[in-house]
Design brief:
The protein is an alpha+beta fold. Among the domains are: 51-143 and 260-361, no CATH class; 403-562, no CATH class. The chain has 20 helices and 7 strands. It has helices at 5-34, 37-44, 58-68, 73-78, 147-158, 166-188, 192-195, 205-219, 221-234, 236-239, 251-262, 278-291, 348-361, 367-402, 406-434, 442-463, 476-499, 503-508, 512-548, 554-561, and strands at residues 94-100, 108-115, 125-132, 298-304, 312-317, 330-333, 339-342. Strands 3-2-1-4-5-6-7 form a 7-stranded antiparallel beta sheet, covered by helices on one side. Strand 1 and strand 2 form a beta hairpin. The longest helix is centred in the last third of the chain and has 37 residues, at 512-548. The chain is globular, with a radius of gyration of 27 Å.
């Protein structure tokens, strides 16, 4: 089929990159934003704009908050079809209480799982989830959407398509094919070391676009390969659901065996029992960690079989002092505070898995490395975007002569994916600051704005793509760049007006989470404005060249400029 192995790799690289690049650029961009998801949360929810707090006292704050919680109506409605008979107005049997926080979280996430009476599946659980102010134990309104951790972060690995976990499967397939594209790219570029240092900015669009594609691909190659691979490792349980297929019938038996080995009860005893001081258990866990030379910040605190004689408390370390995602859990009998189990050292396989997972999810405390993650992700976006542009620039002259529409379609989709994605993002941030705080379903409206803005950019990109069929530039690129620039500035202004936290205040007080988001938006505004001006100047130069060219050479001039 191909004259050489290298040509076959070129074909694979081109078409895999083209078809799946539209998914991967979304994964890269929102992965970059997810590195600072908690900071974006603080920008989007002004009520959480205070310094990060440690895990609050269970006895004084967490327990009263848990006792007031009940599942939200939408959570109850989700289990309605899985119950024989009506659902109760109040859920009283609590299966689990849990609280989670990190060194970047001003608020704690608290959740409670309740037994569902008359459920078809005995393990059916309905959940209540809240953000809690750890300073006073107040539960924050569920009307607010934490844009960073609840929207941008899931977009990174699932495209926010939750039906049958379809989005996660699409991203997983794209990541697998990305590994193939990376390998084929290395095979294609025999002079890969030279391309590390080559960028000819004053050459033709096709030439400097290819140079930039090669440069960003080579510089960030280890980053791209590692994150595609570790992403597949993290979701291996979804892609290869052995526990839910081949081992499904052994699941219950496995849990009982594990309970016997660990001493942590699997079932409720059916006998009521009080809850001893959990704060004392936390203090004992911290004492044991300190004896091992470990940091003592608590990252997760959970109570299983609440109110039962078999209830137990699990305390896990935050682990911000290391890369591996490990918590050194210590488990206590809830009614007495007796230590039931201290998690043993991990096996070699577990250590490798936790290191790879921790390096991908970067829960550790290292700000410079976080910014390197952002730069690596944005380099991936540039690499894919320049691949799109090179594909179009290389073929649009030929397609114009043949009357084909392939380049026009690819270019419109590229515009939608790149600048349209940015428009949707800044539109969501503007909506977050403009919509009234007490608007019912405010988070849902913000999501509608995001998808609506992206859909409009798609329509605009196709409506303005006519010049591409004539081997000219799509004006939608520069027009949408101007929109992104204006939207980013509008988001910064809207934040200052609606909250009073303008840049002068946030920088002077050193409140970098909000200041960082504003500065990033202004940087985006500057880059896209410069890009739009450059594209406008280039389009004007081409029109001048076209007008100056002899009538007989008009077509040749068009093709040469492309």
């Amino acid at each position: 089929m191909f004259q050489s192995f290298r040509l076959s790799m070129a074909w694979l690289h081109t078409w895999f990159g083209l078809v799946l690049g539209f998914v991967l650029v979304v994964v890269f961009f929102f992965g970059s934003l997810s590195v600072f998801d908690r900071e974006i949360d603080r920008w989007s929810i002004p009520q959480s704009r205070f310094e990060p707090q440690p895990m609050p006292s269970f006895d004084k704050l967490l327990k009263p908050a848990f006792e007031k919680m009940q599942p939200a109506p939408f959570a109850v409605a989700a289990v309605k079809d899985r119950v024989n008979g009506p659902l109760p107005e109040r859920f009283d049997v609590v299966r689990t209480w849990g609280a989670y926080t990190t060194h970047r979280d001003p608020v704690a996430t608290v959740f409670a799982g309740y037994e569902v009476p008359n459920a078809k599946d005995p393990d059916e659980t309905v959940w209540a989830v809240h953000a809690m102010d750890p300073r006073d134990g107040q539960l924050l309104s569920q009307n607010h959407l934490a844009i960073g951790s609840q929207f941008f972060y899931p977009m990174h690995y699932s495209l926010n398509v939750t039906w049958k976990e379809l989005g996660t499967w699409v991203v997983g397939f794209a990541a697998l094919m990305m590994l193939a594209a990376l390998v084929s790219g290395v095979v294609m570029h025999r002079k890969i070391f030279r391309e590390f240092f080559t960028f000819r900015r004053n050459k033709s669009t096709q030439r400097n676009t290819l140079d930039l594609h090669n440069l960003t691909g080579v510089v960030a190659l280890p980053f791209h390969f590692f994150f595609a691979f570790t992403g597949l490792v993290i979701f291996a349980g979804i892609y290869f659901p052995v526990a839910h297929t081949q081992l499904h019938d052994l699941h219950e038996l496995s849990e009982k065996i594990e309970a016997t080995e660990t001493g942590l009860p699997h079932e409720r005893a059916g006998v009521a029992a009080p809850l001893a001081s959990v704060d004392a258990m936390v203090a004992e866990a911290q004492r044991r960690w300190q004896a091992k030379g470990m940091a003592g910040d608590v990252g997760y605190l959970g109570v299983q079989h609440v109110g039962d004689a078999n209830s137990y408390v699990s305390v896990y370390r935050a682990g911000t002092d290391r890369v591996a995602l490990t918590g050194e859990g210590i488990h206590f009998k809830a009614s007495t505070g007796e230590v039931l189990r201290e998690d043993p050292p991990r096996t070699a396989v577990d250590n490798v898995n936790e290191f790879l997972t921790g390096l991908h999810l970067q829960h550790f405390r290292h700000w410079l490395l976080r910014w390197l993650y952002v730069l690596g992700g944005l380099a991936g976006c540039v690499c894919i975007a320049t691949g799109f542009i090179f594909f179009v620039e290389k073929r649009k002259g030929q397609h114009a002569k043949a009357g084909g529409q392939g380049s026009r379609i690819v270019d419109a989709l590229a515009v939608t994916t790149m600048t349209g994605m940015l428009i949707a993002t800044v539109a969501m941030l503007v909506a977050n600051r403009v919509l009234p705080e007490d608007l019912i379903g405010k988070g849902d409206w913000e999501q509608r704005v995001f998808w609506g803005a992206w859909a409009l950019s798609l329509v605009h990109a196709f409506l303005r793509s006519g010049p591409v069929a004539q081997a000219r530039m799509n004006p939608a690129w520069r027009e949408q760049c101007f929109v992104v620039s204006a939207g980013a500035v509008a988001a910064v202004v809207a934040n200052a007006v609606s909250t009073g936290d303008h840049l002068v205040r946030t920088i002077s007080t050193g409140y970098w989470p909000v200041a960082g988001v504003d500065l990033s938006l202004l940087a985006l505004a500057g880059v896209t404005w410069l890009a739009a001006r450059k594209l406008a100047q280039r389009a004007q130069d081409k029109e001048v060249a076209k007008a100056a060219a002899p009538a007989g050479n008009l077509a040749a001039a068009e093709v040469s400029h492309g």
